[in-house]
Amino acid sequence: MAEEEYPEYKEVQGPAITTPRRLPFRLAVRPGGGVRIVRYRSPKPQADYAVYKTTLAAAVEEIKIEMRAQHQQTRAEVQTVKHDVLAAIKASPVEYLKLLCEFGSLFLLFSLAIRFLLKIELVNTGFALFMLAALVIYWAMVRVKESSDKRRRQNTQG
């Protein structure tokens, strides 16, 4: 019954039905009966691949050299900034403590805001409130120390 419904497939005797060359594909008959589309592939010369491979290898080497140079430059910049920060901390530990208190209080306020808005607990709420109070006290102590140092300098100069 299936043989009677599709007589055009019975007539095909060769391994493939070819269509005019202007189409980018051809029809091929499967051994069990049926047709599939096979695309034409144009062979690529090996010389193009060798040139492509050489060009790609050269580009990779250029990128590696550039990455090494940028890494060394960044490393040098980080070292100088690190030394500058350490020198500033040694010169004024009060400024370091002030920055630490400000950063800590901002982080704790952020974590409390996340806790109450999104119900995500980054830091234990009790600990965050205790540390926030402690950091505010330390910050106030630092401000008093700065103002007393400033008055002492003014009194010694004048």
Can you describe this structure?
There is one protein chain. Strand 1 (16-17) and strand 2 form a beta hairpin. The radius of gyration is 39 Å and the shape is elongated. Helix content is 72%, strand content 8%. The longest helix has 46 residues, at 46-91. It has helices at residues 2-5, 7-10, 46-91, 93-118, 125-157; strands at residues 16-17, 25-29, 35-39. With 158 residues, it is mostly helical. It has 3 domains: 2-39, no CATH class; 44-91; 92-151. It has 5 helices and 3 strands. It has a 3-stranded antiparallel beta sheet, with no helix packed on it. Helix 3 (46-91) crosses helix 4 (93-118) and helix 4 packs antiparallel against helix 5 (125-157). It starts with a helix and ends with a helix.
Regarding quaternary structure, how should these chains be classified?
A: single chain
Strand content: 5-15%
Task: Characterize the largest beta sheet: strand count, sense, and whether it forms a barrel.
Answer: 3 strands, antiparallel
Helix content: over 70%
Radius of gyration: 39 Å
The strand order across the widest sheet is: 1-2-3
